[in-house]
Amino acid sequence: MRLLQPFIPNYNYCIICGNQTESEACSRPCRSKLTLLRFTINERKGLEKIGEKFYDEHTIKAFNKIQDILKK
Asked: What is the pTM of this model?
């Protein structure tokens, strides 16, 4: 089995859609998706840090919403 080296472009690109851009997000929708993703990850890290690891209905819905956003 041979591992392939991932492609890392030498230009700035949008983290969400991959388009070449000056900043980390190319447009307002991509920027809002990125902000939502970062907020949710930070919130989840905080909850896991205090020991809460159960998954309730709200957590599952939030995770599914993030997955739907990232699919688009």
From this structure: 0.57
Q: Where do runs of H (alpha helix) occur along 1-72?
A: 28-49, 57-71
Query: In this structure, what token pair is assigned to residue 70?
Result: 């990232």
Q: How far is CA 16 from CA 27, 30, 32, 41, 64, in A?
A: 10, 6, 10, 15, 17
Q: What is the pLDDT of residues 56-69, one digit of tens each?
A: 787 778 778 877 77
- Residue 21 CA to residue 11 CA, distance in Å, equals 8
Residue 19 tokens read as 């388009």
Spatial distance between the Cα atoms of 7 and 56, rounded to a whole number of angstroms: 38
Tell me the C-alpha distance between 67 and 72, whole Å: 9
